[in-house]
Amino acid sequence: xxxxxxxxxxxxxxxxxxxxxxxxxxxxxxxxxxxxxxxxxxxxxxxxxxxxxxxxxxxxxxxxxxxxxxxxxxxxxxxxxxxxxxxxxxxxxxxxxxxxxxxxxxxxxxxxxxxxxxxxxxxxxxxxxxx
Length: 131
What we know:
Layout: E1 4-7, H1 13-22, E2 37-42, E3 45-54, E4 59-67, H2 76-93, E5 98-100, H3 106-114
């Protein structure tokens, strides 16, 4: 079967919570996430997902890219690539000129590099305050 991509829906959140827990990530509160998200699947099995924060500029933020820790098929990197490229196409069609993301996973960073993203080699930190 081939890889498919679709928009995330409310029912997907519980799956992503399981993935975040499995990867020892903090659970991202539903009210912290934007409405725009995508998931790549194969045979109705989720492989990788991510969210897009839109802004009032020509830029968007692609964030919270997370993969299914139990999915170990050889097309895993293809699914990640499909997610990023699909987001690029959707945003470009909407007139967005810039996409920004934050990452620390070396494999994910390398995929971004192969897709022509500029990667700052200096580490940075996510800084969040709950109000």
